[in-house]
Amino acid sequence: MAENSTSAKKVLQILWFAFLVATAMYWMVMQMIPANPQDVRAMGNVLMGVAGAEGAAVLYIRIARIGALLSRATPVSSEEVAKLRVLYIVCFSLSEAVALYGFVLHFIGASRAEVAPFFFAAAVLLLVCYPRLPPQHGSGSV
User: Fold this and answer.
1) Which three-class secondary structure string do you get for 65-106?
2) What's the pLDDT tens digit per position in 23-56?
């Protein structure tokens, strides 16, 4: 089972890194695309609200759901490790979506300064969600 745990952690680390790199790539691509200046305050406020809600969801999942599984003193079953993987992937996806909202805002006319907070928030959320698995507990745990 220890091999499964090591494999699961490696897969999560690869996925995490891919999401972090994708967020950076959105920023780099955005630098090459000129904004079409127009008033995007209303859309910006909507996307900021959605991004805030997603950020709160990521923090809830990471702290309450993942944190509870990581802090247990009893062995974690293979089903719980699978649940942990799913929770991490959801966190990664929601975190990257925050950067995508900034990317979209730039396409519809927002400046770099207006979308930078989206990219910063996405990177911070991804850093908060760096994958960890519970420590080994005897030979029967994962």
Assistant:
1) HHHHHHCCCCCCCHHHHHHHHHHHHHHHHHHHHHHHHHHHHH
2) 999 999 888 877 677 778 888 899 999 999 999 9
